[in-house]
Amino acid sequence: MRIAAISDLHIRPDGSDDDFLTAIRQRLEVISPDVFVIAGDISDNIAVVEKTLSAIKLSNAENLYVAGNHDIWFEKEKGIGSLEKYSRFIGDACTNAGFHHLPDEPFIKDNVAFVGSLGWYDYSFRRDELNIPEESYLEKEWQGSYWRDYYTVDLEYTDREFTELLNSKLEYDLSALPENIETVIYISHHLPFGALTPYKDSLPWDFFSAFMGAESTGEILLNDERVKLSISGHSHVRRQIFLDGLLAVTVPVGYGRPENDDFTSLVHDGIAELELTDGKCKVHHYVDGDICEGLPYAF
Q1: Most C-beta atoms within 10 A of its C-beta, which of 51, 121, 236, 256?
Q2: Residues 4-28: pLDDT tens digits?
Q3: Which 8-state DSSP code applies to residue 242?
Q4: CATH number of the domain encompassing residue 180
């Protein structure tokens, strides 16, 4: 089973990323995967999410999506809150575009199950040696620097409560899989392992790292020997690690765009190519690091 994966496209709503999407579609047609995965963060505009998914859907592959935190930012002018977007509107957009929204229901192909979640954060990735008070994480602010979810997500839960809720759904999805499932692939936006989190020994970057994910999610994955591969986004710095027989990769693109509008290199670096054979994962193509480094910031 060949898998192509990407995340954090952050599509501009004015149509100026149409060539970017065309390049993604063309590259995917060359790769010709059996499964195409997007691990969140297309847009905070639900219409842009659906239009983007429609533009890059593959007709000869299974198309899978999990929402990212940007995707669930509330849309005040439309009266759509974050929980409503996650539980209804994202799934509707996926269905309309020919994608399967994994948080709604796992996808099963033969004896392989794809299980997905937005994932969230509980500050377990924070660096205690920074001595930043608990209140700063709760308020998502440190010395004037804000994690933007503070302004754009209107959950009815604390971050820890929401993490626990999503973890409970993950545990349920894993427990309810058919008995013939031998391999599980986990797709999320937020990171399930702290080792995937980039730290730079600088602030506010390392303060923001606390909002990358939750160790408790990774513990669930490691406790299920069927889970062989984890694909995530969010961090904008790509990493791959091996933990107890599990391969975990991050596949974000980011906010950068080439000045000459030649997206060939960015897309080639951005789409990871993996293969699952007899329960073992092989990496065919993967680029580490920040693939947007040095590119103009598009937002």
Answers
A1: 121
A2: 999 999 999 999 999 999 999 999 9
A3: E
A4: 3.60.21.10
